[in-house]
Amino acid sequence: MAGSNGHRAAGRPVLRKDGSALAGDRREIPGTPEWILASGYLSGAFSLAAKAHGSQRRPSDGRLFLEHVSEVVGLLQRLEFDEELVAVGLLHDSVERGTLGEPELRDAMGNSIAWLVMVLSEDPTIESFEARKAALRAQVAAAGLRAITVFAADKLSDIAGLRRGIDASQDAAEKRMGTSVASMADHYRDSVQMIADVRPGSAFLSALRLELGRLDSLAKAC
Fold first, then answer.
1. 145 belongs to a structural domain
2. Cross-strand pairs, 15
3. How far is 58 from 80, CA to CA, in rounded Å?
4. Domains identified in the chain, total number
5. Pairwise CA distance, residues 190 & 39, whole Å
6. Is position 3 within any domain?
7. How many CA atoms lie within 13 A of 18 on its CB side?
């Protein structure tokens, strides 16, 4: 577990309910960052994320979802957050966007990581886009620092991804996303505001504001 500042703590093996180590199931996936391969704990989590996402592509920019996952955890790793939080970053979309079920996630990674991943996951029973995103922001805000930290890194990657999608073709991006660029930009704007309100000391806040400004400028130019 992390220390009081939420940064790096010694990794520990993840055990399934039968006592077998998740790290023993790891696969070396092409493109896996070397720093992940150096940790059995993170290699196991990355393999689980790869299994969940497969060849899935992110709607905003059409890139492989695993590229987004790697982008998010790269942000966390560069600021030396602990391995458990990095594992959450690796798996944050594995249930909401991927094929992993919550019971399988909990069995493989334990209650702490599974709880945080589910906090970072939308409620699919909420039909309205705006209401679903608002509920997500509210549950992340209520969950505390660790959830907000991964959420902030995720949004930093998301905003950059949407900018890439708009730059390539806004119409194509909107078709893939099933919603408008304006709606996504509103969600990102509200997300950054939530982070600023709840965690004004977030390490990602300045970068988020910069990316949001770039997104707004690009959207106005289109």
1. yes
2. 21
3. 26
4. 1
5. 35
6. no
7. 3
Name the helix (H) or strand (E) containing 138: helix 129-143
Phi, psi of 27 (to 5 degrees): -120, 140
C-alpha 120/C-alpha 42 separation (Å) is: 19
Residue 55, judged by CB atoms within 10 A of its CB (0-12, 13-18, 19+), counts as exposed
Whether 182 maps to a domain, the answer reads yes
99-157 pLDDT, tens digit per residue, is: 999 999 999 999 999 999 999 999 999 999 999 999 999 999 999 999 999 999 999 99
d(CA 198, CA 177): 28
Q: For residue range 153-164, what is the model confidence (pLDDT) as tens digits? A: 999 999 999 999
CATH number of residue 210's parent domain: 1.10.3210.10
Q: Residue 79 sits in which domain range?
A: 22-221
**CB crowding 128-149: b at 16 or more within 10 Å, else e:** ebeeebeebbebbbebeebbbb
Alpha-carbon separation of residue 155 from 38, 40, 72, 118, 188 (angstroms): 27, 27, 9, 16, 7
User: Are 23 and 41 within 8 A, CB to CB?
Assistant: yes
Q: Give the CA dihedral 172, 177, 183, 186, nearest 10 degrees.
A: -110
Q: Which residues pair with 7 in a beta bridge?
A: 81
